[in-house]
Amino acid sequence: MTLQKVRQIFTKILLKALYTKLFHIVFSVIFLTLGTATVFSQEITFSDSIKLDSKDLFTVKDSIIKDSSKKPKPFLDGIVNMKAKGFEKMNQKKKQLTLQDEASIKYTGFDIKAGKIVYDFEKKQVYAGRLKDSAGNFIQRPVFTQGTNVIEPDSIVYNTVSGKALIWNSRTKQGEMNIKAEISKRENDSVVFMKSARLTTAKDIDDPEYYFYVTKVKFVPNKKVIVGPTNLVIADVPTPIFLPFAYFPMSETSSSGFIIPTPGQNNRQGYFLQNGGYYFALSDFYDLAVLGDYYTNGSYGLRAESSYAKRYKFTGRFNLRLENNIQSEKGFPDYVKSKQYNIQWSHNQDPKAAANSRFSASVNLGSSQYYRQSLNLNNVGASLNNNLSSSVSYSKTFQTVPQVNMSLTATHSQNTNTKQIDMTLPTFQASVDRIYPFAPKDGIKKGLIKNINLQYSVRAENRIKTADSLFFKPQMFRDAKAGFQHSIPVNTNFKILKYFSVSMGAAYNEVWAFNTIQKEFSALENKIITEDQNGFEAFRTYNFNAGIGTTLYGMFNFGENSKIQAIRHVMRPNISFGYTPSFEKYYDTYAIDATGLTTAEYTKFDGGLFGAPGKSYANNLGFSLSNTFEAKVKDKESKKDETKKVMLLNNLNLATNYNLAADSLAWSPVRISGGTQLFNQKMDINFATTLDPYAIDNSGKRIEKFNIDNGGSLFRMTSANMTLNYSFSSTDGDKKKDKQNQQNGGTGDDLFGTSTDLSDSRQSLFKKDDDENLEKTTSNEWYATKLPWDLRLAYSITYNNSNRENEISSNSLMASGNIELAPRWKVGFSSGYDFKQKGITFTQLRFERDLESWRMSFNWVPIGTNTYWGFFIGISSSILSDIKYDKRQIPDRVF
């Protein structure tokens, strides 16, 4: 099995106070496994005095008489293949072979390609260099490949016997690090020396934005690296950042080490050290990082972060965060102390791991106030979101006839405002595939009888409803409720009169309950007491349903000369009937006063997991109508006067019910909903309303009198809402989601601002959607006429009139946008206005400068309860993440 190593972004130090990620910098010199025992000048003289055909290279004879018992070795022993586009020459006197123009030699253990190659088969040495074109520019730089190491120097001398080499201006890439050294030499098999080396994560190694200049390097493969004077150079200007020497352990595998903390200060917790700790390289499959924060006022935070992966099997990540937050000082009136925690776990199974089973997890649970009070995470979208949810599931399919599906799921839903938690530990579901008992094994299922089918499904739950303060305490488990629900639906469908589709069905349900109630009047306490009962109880219900529907098409033609040539209207009317009998046998009575003469009815299954049997007899007729409107218009971009379809109204739905068994208020309110997309599907519009045909009395209760007969209109609008989303840009919009925001409980867009993970400021404030085009531009270029930009608008309005309020309950407009002033220069904003509360909603301003290998950003929330600003400049690469300047003022937390 091929293993997949888990990559980490942490700086690792082993018993060295000043250890930085220069370990990875020096580690990248592993390509210098070549050395030489002789010093050569960079100027190499090539001999071209003799020209032979390639077949003559293997027929040269030595003039010295040798023992006939020994076979002479060929001069080019070990060469697998050689070729040159220009010419091949042999100097028999100097015993040198010259290959010119796109030359290459494949030797045992290495491969060399270059503009010019000279092979000295007496010294067993290869000389490779560049050529000059007609303009005097060097071309065809040598490419030396040995194993997994690839070197692109200006010139190279390599001894095929000893394996030693001398290399000038070598260029190589190891991970994220690019290395260029003027001279590289290996003293012996275990020591490599470098002189005047440049180490950088910039893509252009010949003209990098920054680099570390190292004068001397001693490298012992797989053991250690010792470097001499090292200086950070930015834009070819040396900086004061200087190290006289450094020692680093060397290993090809992940190694444990310390993680350097980030110092800082804020106005509520004082001075602090954040994100310091230790990294444990446990194995190739998983790792662990233990991090901590400390503040001088006594606040602290602890985090454990682990990633794991196995190729073709699964990947996952687990985070545990604990915080002890203190505001102000003890003895002051604003002193507040709180403890917060958060658990995140994501697990994804590779689709190739198992064909018939799957395990997945997405967990985000913890303290209700974690995202609002955390000192190490600023995610406004998550702090405004009032729900956290989790799910861990395992499913399996049994390839039997009929097929059986089974799943086991644990879920969690948490309201951060009410601090109420709902969990299922676990939910079990199983179902048998649809069975057609009267259909032939081979043939078409057609007609009333052949289409009769049935299924069986079972669902079991252990549900817990608790509060944040009782989470995972004994009281939480004592309040759990458990039960089973069995369902057997029987259905069929057929056509009548060719155009009408009829469906009929019946359903049988059986519920097993282990938690019931009992009500009685207590004369001692003079009130009704409800007692919980534990034990097995069951009830059974059934119902019948039928429906008939069809599809109608209407076409309105406007003529060929009209811009709108036709409008098509599609209607799908449907009439349904539902019958549910009364299950009075499951109801009991209890006295409601001390006399015992006045009683009320109840069922012991009230408040159960799967509901309670209904006492009311129901005989309902349902009416629904679905509408779709499309237009055929002339396509302006077509040169052949072709037409295209444009959606006018994606759906317009109307639905209501009439209860044949009701003695009053038989009609249900009419529900109308619709939606469409405009402006090339960049604007989404959705609306809904509820219309009640009945009037209400002075207390707001519905009465048996139509609203039109009470002096009103035909219908009384009780509620309505509309949402509008418009996303457009210079490149026709962007609907991509912010995964980082979603993972931490956010909304997935930047209407509530972008999330800021204070433990890793290297992540961009903006979504990079066109990295390929970005790489083609340089930081010095400017846009000629058109600036890339994007803008998102979200408008929402809700009307309420259920009890003659006649008011707008909510009315707000939100906007967010970004503009690219120049390649790698971006600014953005998020803001809005609440017309109901008459105030500005959350506002965030963003700025970012992409310096290719570096990143600079400024993030500012100027108003509100989450005021915040942060400035960051540092190297984007994870292996040099400690080289940065990070200054911020965290939001003033309100406990």
Give me the secondary-structure topology:
Layout: H1 22-27, E1 79-83, E2 87-91, E3 96-107, E4 110-120, E5 125-129, E6 131-132, E7 138-139, E8 143-146, E9 149-151, E10 155-159, E11 165-174, E12 177-188, E13 191-200, E14 210-220, E15 224-227, E16 230-234, E17 237-243, E18 246-249, E19 257-259, E20 262-266, E21 270-280, E22 288-295, E23 300-310, E24 314-327, E25 336-349, E26 357-366, H2 370-373, E27 377-378, H3 380-384, E28 387-398, E29 404-415, E30 420-435, E31 453-467, H4 474-478, E32 481-496, E33 500-522, E34 527-549, E35 552-557, E36 564-580, E37 587-591, E38 599-603, E39 618-634, E40 643-659, E41 670-678, E42 683-692, E43 694-696, E44 702-706, E45 716-729, H5 739-743, E46 756-757, H6 771-776, E47 789-800, E48 807-822, E49 825-834, E50 839-840, E51 844-851, E52 854-861, E53 868-875, E54 884-889
Antiparallel strand pairs: 1-3, 2-3, 3-4, 4-5, 4-8, 5-10, 6-7, 8-9, 10-11, 11-12, 12-13, 13-14, 14-15, 14-16, 15-18, 16-17, 19-21, 20-21, 21-22, 22-23, 23-24, 24-25, 25-26, 26-28, 27-46, 28-29, 29-30, 30-31, 31-32, 32-33, 33-34, 34-36, 35-36, 36-39, 37-38, 39-40, 40-41, 41-42, 42-45, 43-44, ...
Let me know the largest β-sheet: 30 strands, antiparallel
Which bin fits the share of residues in helices? under 10%
Strand-residue proportion:
over 45%
**Rg, nearest Å:** 38 Å
Q: What is the helix tally?
A: 6
> Termini separation (Å)?
51 Å
Q: Globular, elongated, flat, extended or rod-shaped: what is the shape? A: extended
Query: What low-confidence regions span 5 or more consecutive residues with pLDDT below 50?
Result: 1-68, 733-741, 769-780
Q: What structural category characterises the helix and strand content?
A: mainly beta
